[in-house]
């Protein structure tokens, strides 16, 4: 939109430009739906935080940013319009349309919405975490790893992201402590093995970070607590990367939609939510696993279902006015 504060009508709004949103955009334009995709940052989503992807079929090894660019260009080849805009609210109106409001106060009135807003990294919520964020504490290995060349750092977590990123970070750092609150990792076996075999990584089991320590120069250590013995210790480290899960970005929904205990939106097999006309795809959706392949698969289904929904709406309106 040229000016802020304007209102525009479209058939379909896609919120979020990660793998799910870009795939939805590709299929929506290929199906010739009047569509706009709203993305608050650069298109690509978490691909922009991922270095090597080796599990996307047909592309045995690809850099995340390269895949993001390829997906963006592919969707744009079909004519997808991508607007840089942070969506603030999505509201279902009485007439069945949706009002999608951006931070710049632009309003899109859409007949259907596909929400593909992914998630936000969980925080440890300990003293010093916010204070030293950007001065030692990070949530993105690819963005910040190179700042820690030759240093000793820690990674908090025990799932796929923590193990994968710990392994990645050892290309820069001399020593890495993986701090995990349990006595076994939750990550896939292949990722666990990479960590076990990496001589730069030492795992500190049954332990949580209690505080991020530092001075005016930045972070210089962690206060740790063993959850079994309650014993506290200090770990000298100049960096802490936190990978302890994601919170789905569903806060923009003004109406209640069914969700699971983690806040992920529940859909039927066609990506329909409990709000008619609202479809979701990708990491924001309740499902067994969250991968690029599942995000693009969900998004494909969501567009086909949205197209069907829009056709049925038009048919019902035509019948009503006949
Ligand atoms: C470190 C890491 C490594 C990974 N490695 C792999 C891997 O090797 N293989 C694999 O298959 N998967 C991997 N994944 C998982 C994969 O990246 C995700 O499953 C996938 O990106 C999900 O796509 P998505 O489009 O649902 O969400 P996202 O990629 O999170 O995209 C969501 C988009 O929505 C935007 N957005 C959010 N809120 C708003 C708003 N209010 N307004 C506008 N835009 C908004 C965000 O800016 C973002 O661009 C990895 C994830 C991480 C974190």
From TrEMBL:
Cofactor annotation: FAD
Keyword Flavoprotein belongs to the record: yes
Repeat among keywords: no
Lineage top rank: taxon: Bacteria
Any one Gene Ontology BP term: removal of superoxide radicals
TM region(s), chain numbering: none
GO MF annotation: an example: thioredoxin-disulfide reductase (NADPH) activity
Record domain FAD/NAD(P)-binding: where: 11-298
Sorted UniProt keywords: FAD, Flavoprotein, Oxidoreductase, Redox-active center
This enzyme's EC code(s): 1.8.1.9
GO cellular component, one term: cytoplasm
Catalytic reactions of this protein: [thioredoxin]-dithiol + NADP(+) = [thioredoxin]-disulfide + NADPH + H(+)
Family from the record: Belongs to the class-II pyridine nucleotide-disulfide oxidoreductase family.
Subunit details: Homodimer.
Protein name per Swiss-Prot or TrEMBL: Thioredoxin reductase
Species annotation: Candidatus Kutchimonas denitrificans
Top-level taxonomy: Bacteria, Pseudomonadati, Gemmatimonadota, Gemmatimonadia, Candidatus Palauibacterales
Gene symbol of the encoding locus: trxB
């Amino acid at each position: 939109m040229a000016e802020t504060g304007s209102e525009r009508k479209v058939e379909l709004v896609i919120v979020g430009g990660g793998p799910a949103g870009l795939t939805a955009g590709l299929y929506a334009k290929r199906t010739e739906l009047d569509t706009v995709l709203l993305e608050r940052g650069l298109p690509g989503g978490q691909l922009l935080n991922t270095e090597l992807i080796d599990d996307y079929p047909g592309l045995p090894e690809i850099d995340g940013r390269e895949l993001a660019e390829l997906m963006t260009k592919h969707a744009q080849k079909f004519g997808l319009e991508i607007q840089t805009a942070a969506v603030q609210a999505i509201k279902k109106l009485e007439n069945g349309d949706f009002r999608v409001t951006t931070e710049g106060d632009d309003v899109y009135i859409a007949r259907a919405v596909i929400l593909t807003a992914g998630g936000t990294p969980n925080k440890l919520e300990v003293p010093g975490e916010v204070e030293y964020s950007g001065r030692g504490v990070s949530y993105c290995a690819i963005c910040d790893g190179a700042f820690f060349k030759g240093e000793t750092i820690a990674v908090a977590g025990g799932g796929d992201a923590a193990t994968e990123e710990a392994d990645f970070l050892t290309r820069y750092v001399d020593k890495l402590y993986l701090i995990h609150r349990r006595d076994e990792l939750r990550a896939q076996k292949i990722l666990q093995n990479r960590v076990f075999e990496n001589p730069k990584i030492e795992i500190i089991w049954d332990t949580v970070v209690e505080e991020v320590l530092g001075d005016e120069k930045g972070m210089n250590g962690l206060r740790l607590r063993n959850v079994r013995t309650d014993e506290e210790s200090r770990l000298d480290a100049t960096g802490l990367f936190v990978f302890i899960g994601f919170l789905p970005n569903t806060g923009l929904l003004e109406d209640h939609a069914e969700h699971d205990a983690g806040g992920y939106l529940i859909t039927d097999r066609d990506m329909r939510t409990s709000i008619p006309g609202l479809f979701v795809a990708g990491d924001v959706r309740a499902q067994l696993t969250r991968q690029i392949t599942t995000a693009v698969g969900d998004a494909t289904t969501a567009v086909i279902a949205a197209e069907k929904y829009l056709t049925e709406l038009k048919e019902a309106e035509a019948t009503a006015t006949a």
